[in-house]
């Protein structure tokens, strides 16, 4: 039976971390939808037209090892504002969301556009400083030589662009449960999310 958990929120709020943990806990499949936009944006940096890049995206493209750089983040956020790009990625996400056995998707528009009928919707946030600190630490740990200021600037620009766009902007669904993780450890955030899903499952 299909059961969908939709997780949305601004950049580096912990959506993916919580999504992966929920999927493992409940035995559901997990899709980080940001990867679709990152892989599309990555291809445009090679000169491919954004709509063409989204339409011809392949599984291999999602495995590229340079999808987390600030340059690709920015390219992802730019292509994500193009309605035809979003349209090209829609069917795959919807089918994933309603697959048998349960699914967790994280992104910006999962609860509002991709799966408005999701059984559980979480809107995960954390304050700007905490999100930048976490992403900076993560990137430094991964060997990326970026400054905290560069990460802050990337998050600030993307959140502004993602919130302001006309098509599927970043915003909580009316029935989303808000989870502010600013003062939570990963374990605490995951426990709160698990509890919310268990309440919805009854
Ligand atoms: O998917 P999203 O961009 O929203 O965030 P993430 O990649 O899951 O998390 C960004 C970073 O914050 C990761 O390195 C997490 O380990 C860390 N983190 C977190 O997700 N939640 C906390 N409560 C504390 C740290
Ligand atoms: O991990 P982080 O939160 O930094 O970003 P991401 O989830 O990998 O998403 C990268 C970019 O893709 C975002 O800044 C959005 O512009 C776009 N995106 C989107 O528009 N809709 C989604 N469902 C997921 C990502």
Please tell me about this protein's structure:
The protein contains nine helices and five strands; from the N terminus they run βαβααααβαβααβα. It is α/β, with parallel strands linked by helices. The protein has helices at residues 15-26, 34-44, 50-55, 70-79, 83-97, 110-114, 128-141, 148-164, 186-201; strands spanning 4-8, 29-32, 103-107, 120-125, 177-180. The protein has a five-stranded parallel beta sheet, sandwiched between helices. It has one domain (4-201): P-loop containing nucleotide triphosphate hydrolases (Rossmann fold), CATH 3.40.50.300. The structure holds cytidine-5'-diphosphate (2 copies).
Q: Biggest sheet: strands, sense, closure?
A: 5 strands, parallel
Mean pLDDT: 97
Which structural category do the helix and sheet elements fall into? Answer: alpha/beta
Number of domains: 1
Q: How large is the share of residues in beta strands?
A: 5-15%
Total number of β-strand segments?
A: 5
The shape is: globular
Question: Unreliable runs, pLDDT <50, ≥5 residues?
Answer: none
CATH architecture: 3-Layer(aba) Sandwich
Tell me the number of helical segments per DSSP (H or I, 4 or more residues long). Answer: 9
Q: Bin the helical content.
A: 40-55%
Terminal Cα span: 15 Å
CATH superfamily: P-loop containing nucleotide triphosphate hydrolases
Gyration radius over CA: 16 Å
CATH class: Alpha Beta
* Order of strands across the main sheet: 2-3-1-4-5
Which ions, cofactors or small ligands are bound in this entry? Answer: cytidine-5'-diphosphate
Q: Can you write the helix and strand succession as a string?
A: EHEHHHHEHEHHEH
């Amino acid at each position: 039976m299909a059961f969908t958990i939709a997780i949305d929120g601004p950049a580096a709020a912990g959506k993916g971390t919580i999504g992966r943990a929920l999927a493992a806990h409940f035995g559901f499949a997990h899709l980080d939808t940001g990867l679709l936009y990152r892989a599309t944006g990555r291809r445009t940096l090679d000169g491919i037209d954004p709509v063409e890049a989204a339409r011809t995206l392949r599984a291999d493209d999602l495995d590229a090892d340079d999808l987390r750089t600030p340059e690709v983040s920015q390219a992802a956020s730019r292509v994500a504002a193009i309605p035809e790009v979003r349209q090209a990625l829609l069917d795959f996400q919807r089918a994933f969301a309603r697959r048998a056995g349960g699914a967790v998707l994280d992104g910006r528009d999962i609860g509002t556009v991709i799966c408005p009928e999701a059984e559980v919707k979480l809107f995960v946030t954390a304050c700007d400083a905490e999100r930048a600190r976490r992403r900076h630490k993560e990137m430094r740990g991964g060997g990326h030589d970026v400054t905290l200021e560069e990460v802050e600037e990337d998050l600030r620009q993307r959140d502004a662009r993602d919130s302001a766009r006309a098509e599927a902007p970043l915003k909580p669904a009316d029935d989303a449960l808000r989870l502010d993780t600013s003062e939570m450890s990963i374990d605490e955030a995951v426990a709160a999310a698990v509890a919310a899903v268990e309440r919805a499952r009854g």
